[in-house]
C-alpha cells in the first residue's frame, strides 16, 4: 500500500468543516490527506465550486479521493465539480457528515483502498449511536 | 495489562483463537475507538469485541463507539486467525490504557 486515499469535507460553513477536520484528526489520523471546502469564496455560508475543485486536487495522492458533502448545495456543487472533471478515482459518497468523515478517515489511515473507504463512509448511516 | 485479563488458547495447527477480558479504566470514547479500529485493521485475524451481550467488529470505529462501554465495565476481545494472539494483545492493551 503506497499512498492513502484522500478525503474532502464539503460544507456550507468553513467553521463546520474545519471543526470536523480537527475532530477526525484526533479520532482517526492527521496523516490522511484531508482538505476542507467550507463556505463561499468570500467566507459566507454557502458553497464554492472553486474551493471544492481545489480541495479535491490537493488531496489526490494517486489512491483516489472520497468527497463528503454536508447537505443541500454542498451536494449539488460537489456533483457539478465531479461531472466537469470526471475521474473514476474521485467518488462523492452519500453519508452522514460527521460519522462518515470519522469512518472514512479511520479506514483510510489503515491503508484501505478507495472502495473500502467509500463503503466505510456509506456504512456509517447504518451504525447506531445509542 | 489489567489484572482481570484472562487468556485461553485453543489452537489448531496455525490458526488460533484467543480471548481476553479487559475492565475499562475509562469510558470507551472516540479517541480510543479510533485507535482500536486502526489497530484491528492491521491484523488478518477476525476480531470481535463483546460488551453487554453485543458483539461488533472493531475495525468499524462507529460500531466501537456505539457499544457505549463505560468505565469499570468489562469488554471481551476475541480473535481467530494466524495473528490472533498479537491482535488480542494489541487491542487489549489499547483498552486497558485508554484514558
From TrEMBL, chain A:
One of its GO terms (cellular component) is membrane. GO terms for biological process: glycerol catabolic process; phosphoenolpyruvate-dependent sugar phosphotransferase system. It comes from the Bacteria. It is an enzyme of class 2 (transferase). It catalyses: dihydroxyacetone + phosphoenolpyruvate = dihydroxyacetone phosphate + pyruvate. Residues 4-130 form the PTS EIIA type-4 domain. Component of the dihydroxyacetone kinase complex, which is responsible for the phosphoenolpyruvate (PEP)-dependent phosphorylation of dihydroxyacetone. DhaM serves as the phosphoryl donor. Is phosphorylated by phosphoenolpyruvate in an EI- and HPr-dependent reaction, and a phosphorelay system on histidine residues finally leads to phosphoryl transfer to DhaL and dihydroxyacetone. This is phosphoenolpyruvate--glycerone phosphotransferase.
From TrEMBL, chain B:
Residues 14-99 form the HPr domain. Coiled coil: none annotated. Signal peptide: none annotated. General (non sugar-specific) component of the phosphoenolpyruvate-dependent sugar phosphotransferase system (sugar PTS). This major carbohydrate active-transport system catalyzes the phosphorylation of incoming sugar substrates concomitantly with their translocation across the cell membrane. The phosphoryl group from phosphoenolpyruvate (PEP) is transferred to the phosphoryl carrier protein HPr by enzyme I. Phospho-HPr then transfers it to the PTS EIIA domain. It comes from the Bacteria. InterPro entries: HPr, HPr-like, HPr-like_sf. The lineage of its organism: Bacteria, Bacillati, Actinomycetota, Actinomycetes, Kitasatosporales. Keywords: Sugar transport, Transport. It comes from Streptomyces cupreus. PROSITE patterns: PTS_HPR_DOM. This is Phosphocarrier protein HPr. It holds the Pfam family PTS-HPr.
